[in-house]
Amino acid sequence: MVGGLFIIITSQNYLKKVVGLAIFQTAVFVFFVSLAKVLDGTAPILTKMENAYSNPLPHVLILTAIVVGVATSALGLALVLQIYRNYETIEEKEIQSLELKTDK
Amino acid sequence: MFNIFLDDAAALVVVLPLLISAIIAFIPSKIWPWIISLVTLVLHLVLSLHLLKEISISGLIIYEFGNWEPPWGISFKIDGVNIGLQLLFSIFVLISTFYSRKIFLSEIDSRDSGKAYSLWLLAIGSLNGIILTNDIFNLFVFLEISALASISLIALGAGQNRKALLAAFNYLIIGAIGATFYVIGVGFAYAMTGTLNMNDLIIQLAQYSDGQLAIFAGMSFMLIGLMVKAAIFPVHIWLPPAYSYAPSAVSTLLAALATKTILYFFVRLLYEVFIIYPSYLSLFLDFVLYPLSLLAIFIGTLIAIYQDDIKKLLAFSSIAQIGYITLAFSLKDHSGITSGFIHIFNHALIKGGLFMAVGYFAILQKDRVTLTSLKGFGYKYPITSFALLICGLSLIGLPLTNGFISKLYLFQALYTNQLYFSIALVALSSALAVAYFWKIVEQMWFSEIKFKSEKEDSYIYLPIWIITISIIVFGIYSSPIIEFSNLSADYLISGYQN
Fold this sequence. Notes:
The complex is a heterodimer of chains A (104) and B (498). Chain A is mainly α. Chain A contains four helices and no strands. With 498 residues, chain B is an all-alpha fold. Chain B has a domain at 305-498. Chain B contains 20 helices and two strands. Chain B has a two-stranded antiparallel ribbon. In chain B, helix 4 packs parallel to helix 14. The interface between A and B is medium-sized, with 29 and 27 residues.
């Protein structure tokens, strides 16, 4: 999780930022799934035997969150592509210097 | 037939725009997407009015999706707190959709019209979901849908200025971090209580009455995540570029409603759920939200004075105005919450009107509106300029406008809490607001060049003047807004005392 945040903050490359965001989000998903684990629990399937089973609800929540995460990454990548088409670079510093030039 | 429709009004106000949005994305025509959106939003308003009627009878609607009882199913809750906001939302989206057509025609490729209105309805439906939902995870989903839809809408501004892409990208990254923080908080809350339903959460949290570190950590994560989304001062950096480079119609929608709905949920979380831990709540409000609001008011106004680009100026003034709202909410009493809600209503109208007027100027001169380019506009386009003047005066808080009512109630609330220092600061920043607004007025009316008045588009000034007239009407006859805000505060405070 911290690794993902670190990438987002430090990297100058927009593509890397999107990847960092994905890592950050995945870490949170794993945190949720780890909450659901019940010791000696099995998959929550209805059987004749009475088993301890893991809590399925966080899994379902994370299924939703994964979809949201995919949409976020997809939109992020699409924006990076558009930025590249418009600026011909995806390095933050180069874009900033380009913008400074056009402002003058 | 129509009754079946009305029975599910609570769900339909959210589902209808989402559903239609999926359909109109595939309509290649230039005008039909707009007409369909407009019809959808008229229906939306009818449903909201029906909800208002129901609320005035019963006082509370809990809509369970698929008849799954809470806490298992997802539910929507409509009560005195959010019905006023729902009504404002419904009316405002209708007006801004009416306004958006000319702007979209000139600012984005007309072949994209269907897609643009699809995103537009997606944003509207999900923002409405934020107002109604009673489930903390469901809120996250709506937060993200609305964020993704508005990011795409902001990126549509790239046809005008490629900086819109950078603004949208920054919003995406910062917004996603905020939302993920919120989810971490939800995870902690779920781990401790095993529930996501807000009403159930209150009951479950009460068993940890002495407080647990995990809960405090979760609460802090949730609040920080929402602060990023609501653009509360130190984490507001995504907002000014996003609002200023978006197509003007999108700026109107986002500035007036997007942050407001999130602020509403923020308050609801604070005063309905986290109130169980009064010591934590007062710690957060007194030492985090209160000083940050004062900083936001002051710094937002100061930066706004030095802006040359009008849309950026308005965006920074939005930061300050959000500061006023959070300042009011940090006061922990009835008068504070009331004045916060009053300012949510009034600021939505004021900023909506201002962005509409500036957006119209932008398409008239086919360039970004800066201070110098406004020279003589007061004579060139007198009707819209006059509307801009009234909205601006209301932003400063002159009597006879609704901005004055906001300021009056805020001062009263601060006075009853004996916060004289913040009264002085709010008064000072109102005076500074005169400074940045005067710069605009000076350019528009007092420049050397005199223009003959040109013909204006009555289609555009209709929505602008609806907003402007309502600003004056609510400035003189302000009881509807005050009553709705009082009602919201009553509901929230009654939870506070239990």
